[in-house]
Write a structure and sequence with these properties.
By secondary structure, this protein is α/β, with parallel strands linked by helices. 42% of the residues lie in helices and 19% in strands. The chain contains 15 helices and 16 strands. It has an 8-stranded parallel sheet. Strand 13, helix 10 and strand 14 form a beta-alpha-beta unit. Helix 11 packs antiparallel against helix 14, helix 13 crosses helix 14 and helix 14 packs antiparallel against helix 15. The longest helix is centred in the C-terminal third of the chain and has 27 residues. The radius of gyration is 20 Å and the shape is globular. 47% of the residues are buried. The structure holds zinc ion. Zinc ion (ZN) binds next to helix 12 and helix 14.
């Protein structure tokens, strides 16, 4: 289901193809996030048009609302949300440990109160996989215990061992399931977790528990370290990280899959990612700026609208403004991944990275 196509000659960057029952995904890939079964402010048609090959959704959120029964009766998540390309569902481990209230964690599972209505739920790792099976997700993630930074080593070890035990119980006969490497910022814990997961054997491996408040150098150190223990022939997914710099660094370390709310969240706030950096479209500088957001971009927004008009939409709280900037941002990310893949194909990833940041850090507007 994963084919490693080519390895860059000057770094650990690689290109591959991941095959699921709903289609193929070229890696390295970016997965737009549709937590509630929708990539905020964009229709599936627009997402498709922007070039998305896969989207991400969240089992915890969809379990709470609308609930498993509704999605099952609808004929699965793809049909319910009208997106017929691959879907990766996150287990919601991260959300249970960050959003839900009053958690009681035991080896058996996790008891928590919904952050929406306060209702109590108890989920075992088996239940979390079952939920995702009912959704008919293409790629499932097991329940994991995610710790924040800083985390004392003894607790990080307890959480890592529990995640391992849970992941063991999550194994499925059908569908793709990834293992998640935890262990906070401790190399020995991360190594042990990665090695145990590889012994059990999964369809892919994810690095979880990053971007939880740790400094950047520690984060990159852990990603680089863990990547060295993951098998070459399986896809590697870096969970929840997605500033352009994070993506470039992690691709260089051999990571294949990324997801992040940043392009749409920033888009809704009027911040656009363009080839010369990030711009805030509300700024007065753009009042009479009739250039597109990014003159190097071919997206619908850039082909049809000016910065002045987008600024006007944001200033008048018009919904179209946040839709158009979100659309551009998602397009920008997906196109960036395409360029990264092309650069790896030509063994010039390192040069491309340099060129990208020469322009991106330049702030010429
Ligand atoms: Zn654009």
């Amino acid at each position: 289901m994963f084919k490693l196509i080519q390895q860059d000659k000057n770094s650990r960057a690689r290109i591959g193809k991941l095959t699921t029952s709903h289609g193929e995904i070229d890696t390295p890939c970016f997965m737009p996030v549709g937590t509630q079964g929708t990539v905020k402010a964009l229709s599936p048609a627009e997402l498709n048009d922007a070039g998305a090959q896969i989207m991400l959704s969240n089992a915890y959120h969809l379990f709470l609302r609308p609930g498993i029964e509704v999605i099952k009766k609808a004929g699965g998540l793809h049909k319910f949300i009208s997106w017929y390309k691959p879907i990766l569902t996150d287990s919601g481990g991260y959300q249970i440990f960050s959003l839900a209230l009053l958690r009681k964690v035991s080896d058996e599972g996790v008891e928590f109160q919904s952050h929406i209505d306060g209702l109590k739920h108890f989920l075992r790792p088996e239940d979390v996989v079952d939920i995702q099976k009912n959704f008919a997700s293409d790629i499932m993630m097991p329940l994991d215990e995610c710790v924040h930074y800083p985390c004392a080593k003894d607790y990080a070890e307890v959480a890592m061992k529990r995640t391992l035990a849970w992941v063991r119980r999550s194994k499925v006969e059908s569908g793709l399931l990834f293992g998640i490497v935890q262990g906070a910022t401790y190399e020995d814990l991360r190594k042990e977790c990665a090695q145990r997961l590889v012994e059990i054997g999964f369809d892919g491996y994810a690095i979880g528990g990053v971007s939880v408040g740790e400094p950047k150098n520690l984060r990159y150190n852990i990603i680089n370290f863990v990547a060295g223990y993951l098998p070459q022939e399986k896809p590697r997914y870096l969970m929840g990280l997605g500033m352009p710099q994070d993506i470039f660094e992690a691709v260089e370390m051999g990571m294949d899959m990324f997801d992040c709310v940043i392009p749409t969240r920033y888009g809704r706030n009027g911040t656009a990612f363009i080839s010369s950096g990030k711009i805030t479209i509300r700024n007065a500088t753009y009042t009479e700026d009739f250039k597109p957001l990014d003159d190097k971009c071919d997206c619908y927004t850039c082909k049809n609208f000016s910065r002045a008009y987008l600024r006007h939409l944001f200033n008048t709280d018009e919904i179209l403004g946040l839709r158009l900037v979100s659309w551009h941002n998602v397009y920008f990310y997906l196109e960036l991944m395409q360029k990264i893949r092309e650069a790896i194909r030509q063994d010039r990833f390192i040069d491309f990275k340099k060129e990208f940041f020469e322009s991106y850090n330049n702030k010429i507007e």
